[in-house]
Design brief:
mainly alpha; 340 residues; 69% helix
């Protein structure tokens, strides 16, 4: 658990922030407050780790906090009043957080229980540089094979397409090898890889890959160039603003790409229309965006259904998932398919 109790965190500053949040938002419940300050701690872990590790555990923990803490806090504290009735929280706040807070904390504890000091997420730059020097063509082979796999993956069904989709991630591995293994940045390769994930996100209206890989790419650049605090702070503000703009605009963007050609201009135009209309930061706009990050409303529907309508499954769902992952289809013809 050493990685969670990171000694790089300035605890006095963190506690001052916690006090400020309690004073500034005195009307929120203690459940919401606990969720917010735990999320703040998780975000600080990601922020501090950017220049020395690839923060896989911290990123997973932050995504859990966003989906099961931040979204529900916003819903319970005003946004549900502007939300479509199907997506509102179905149980009282204390009942939801009494379940969600321990569940998320235990999930994150599981991530860190054997993590030590994140040794597995530190990058040996000298070893990577030596490997790239010995095999200078390998990064480019990874990038080209990854780009080709990403292109052809759309022509196959979900099962085979998933294989090509995963191989498509090799392009990022090749880019990371170039960033960490070469003395000079290869601008062309960086532009090609970044351009490919941006264009695919704009083309499909799906931005999860873009945001996730951006965090990893920024982390690798941080390891290579050792960002100062100010640079990380400015970058964090820009990234958060970009995420909010995408969240607010992507619903309308997805509707538009079915009627016209998508792209950066379409996304920018829709964001501007949202801002000049009801306002990008209005409660109504934020409510429609919050449902995209709030997985808590799904949990509350489950809490309303099990065991009142559906009995406890006692791990049956996990058995089905394990069966699908381990057994070949000729032994389990009825096992789950990719995308089920």
């Amino acid at each position: 658990m050493k990685s969670f109790f990171n000694t790089n965190i300035n605890l006095p500053v963190y506690f001052l922030c916690a006090v400020f949040i309690r004073v500034a938002f005195i009307e929120i419940s203690w459940f919401s407050y606990a969720a917010v300050i735990f999320t703040l701690y998780q975000f600080i872990l990601v922020f501090n780790s950017i220049d020395h590790v690839i923060p896989v555990r911290y990123l997973l923990g932050s995504l859990m906090c966003i989906q099961f803490f931040v979204g529900p806090v916003l819903a319970y504290n005003g946004l549900d009043a502007y939300q479509y009735f199907m997506y509102i929280m179905r149980v009282p706040e204390d009942e939801y957080f009494s379940y969600a807070i321990p569940a998320v904390i235990l999930f994150i504890a599981g991530l860190h229980i054997n993590a030590g000091t994140l040794k597995g997420e530190f990058v040996n730059q000298h070893a990577i540089k030596a490997y790239v020097d010995r095999n200078p063509r390998i990064p480019y082979i990874f990038i080209v094979s990854g780009m080709m796999s990403s292109v052809v993956s759309v022509f196959f069904g979900s099962e085979l397409g998933l294989v090509f989709y995963l191989v498509g991630s090799f392009k990022f591995i090749g880019l990371f090898m170039l960033i960490l293994g070469k003395d000079k940045l290869n601008v062309v390769a960086t532009t090609v890889v970044l351009g490919s994930v941006i264009s695919s996100s704009l083309g499909q209206g799906m931005f999860h890959d873009l945001l996730t890989w951006l965090i990893f790419i920024i982390s690798v650049f941080g390891i290579r160039y050792k960002f100062h605090f100010r640079a990380k702070a400015i970058g964090g503000i820009i990234f958060i603003t970009m995420v909010v703009v995408i969240q607010v605009s992507k619903g309308a963007y997805r509707s538009n790409i079915n009627k016209e050609e998508g792209g950066e201009e379409t996304l920018t135009r829709l964001a501007q229309e949202k801002q000049t209309g009801q306002g990008m930061w209005s409660f109504k706009s934020l409510a429609s965006s919050n449902v995209r990050i709030n997985q808590g409303f799904i949990i509350t529907n489950i809490m309303n259904t099990v065991p009142r309508k559906v009995p406890y499954q006692n791990g049956l769902e996990m058995v089905e998932i394990l069966k699908a992952a381990i057994l070949p289809r000729f032994l389990a013809p009825d096992k789950l398919k990719a995308g089920d």
